[in-house]
Amino acid sequence: xxxxxxxxxxxxxxxxxxxxxxxxxxxxxxxxxxxxxxxxxxxxxxxxxxxxxxxxxxxxxxxxxxxxxxxxxxxxxxxxxxxxxxxxxxxxxxxxxxxxxxxxxxxxxxxxxxxxxxxxxxxx
Length: 124
Prior knowledge:
By secondary structure, this protein is of the alpha+beta class. The chain is 33% helix and 32% strand. The longest helix has 18 residues, at 8-25. The radius of gyration is 16 Å and the shape is elongated.
């Protein structure tokens, strides 16, 4: 688990509020020039669902399953009390991304968040 210094936990909670909110709102897909055609077969789908919630001495946790890079992965995300109360079990998010660069950026951000310890695995 991440070691929080004095006040650091609050900062991380606000950061996660932004991440979770942006994840459920989703980035906008830029449209190409009017004369270009997007190949619908090159579009990728990003999905997420809140599968459980828990509050204990460690804090407020959302258990989420995310479909990124053509696979489902379960994660534990520590969030603020406000975010915890805002999201209910079963809330889903889905977005199609047809821009390859944008999709690669989303996947890289997702992997970075895992590496930084913001998305903890639900299985060891």
